From TrEMBL:
Mg(2+) binds at T34, D35, D36, D217, D219, T220. It comes from the Bacteria. Its cofactor is Mg(2+). This is ADP-ribosylglycohydrolase. GO terms for molecular function: metal ion binding. It holds the Pfam family ADP_ribosyl_GH. InterPro entries: ADP-ribosylglycohydrolase, Ribosyl_crysJ1, Ribosyl_crysJ1_sf. Binds 2 magnesium ions per subunit. Keywords: Magnesium, Metal-binding.
């Protein structure tokens, strides 16, 4: 989850100022946390506080943190959902379901539990099949990476399983994607690209640079890619990630620290 927050914060400065290269500063004057971090932490809060993991418990957590951080950059339909007294799913295929899902895979003790929680985390807003599929695919990648002894073995499993199970084309390279890739907030148009950014990475810093270098919805693509990479304990690079917690307000830091302590039995920040 800390990987997702790291990717979001680094990518925030490039969402509306795309770069098509890997050589760029990780910190900029416009660097900040966005809705990706807030909703990822809302999912973590739900997992810790609602032991039944009910849909209403998730809605409550998302609305609570959304109201506490109203200027995080929410999309129009999601902003209306946050403000509703009776929020209903709105058939979204957007990548919001995928960017917030990583805590469920870190929390779950089996792939089956991870996918069940991932679907729950998506359908309160993203009940379109593509919105659900994006969340499931990212959750499975995160769980595979968490469960693997070595990063390269996780990549091999992801390359073999994800295309067959989710019909995502992972045979492209970033060099092939980068020239013509444009802003795309759909799961089907950004989740495979984020997974490829992870697959081509050998370090967390390279992962965030890969993800941002294709352009598009930079903060979300980086959040997804880095959430997968950082799930492998061998490659968490906590010192790098912790440099970016200074951009988070105290209430979000407390949720993140509590969740990281729960799933990793330590307190990285």
């Amino acid at each position: 989850m800390l990987g997702a927050v790291f990717g979001d914060i680094v990518g925030s400065a490039y969402e509306w100022n795309n770069v098509k290269r890997k050589n760029f500063p990780l910190h900029r004057s416009s660097t900040r946390y966005t809705d990706d971090s807030v909703m990822t932490l809302a999912v973590a809060k739900w997992l810790m506080e609602d032991l039944e993991h009910s849909e209403q418990g998730l809605i409550n957590a998302m609305q609570q943190l959304g109201h506490a951080h109203p200027r995080a950059g929410y999309g129009g339909r999601f902003r209306k959902w946050l403000a509703s007294n009776n929020p209903q799913p709105y058939n979204s295929w957007g990548n919001g379901s995928a960017m917030r899902v990583s805590p469920v895979a870190l929390y779950a003790t089996s792939l089956e539990e991870s996918l069940e929680l991932a679907k729950k985390s998506a359908i309160v807003t993203h009940n379109h099949p593509e919105g659900i599929k994006g969340a499931l695919a990212v959750a499975e990648c995160v769980f595979i990476c968490k469960d693997a002894d070595h990063l390269e073995s996780a990549k091999e499993i992801i390359r073999s399983k994800i295309p067959q199970k989710y019909d995502y084309n992972l045979n492209r390279t970033l060099d092939e994607i980068r020239p013509n890739y444009s802003f795309d907030v759909s799961c089907q148009g950004s989740v495979p690209e984020a997974i490829i950014a992870f697959l081509e990475s050998t370090s967390l810093e390279e992962c965030v640079r890969n993800a941002i270098s294709i352009g598009g919805d930079s903060d979300t693509i980086a959040a997804i890619a880095c959430s997968i990479f950082a799930a492998n304990k061998e490659w968490r690079e906590e010192q790098l990630m912790s440099q970016f917690t200074k951009y988070l307000p105290d209430d979000l830091i407390r949720i993140m620290d509590k969740f990281e302590k729960l799933v990793y039995h330590n307190n990285p920040t």
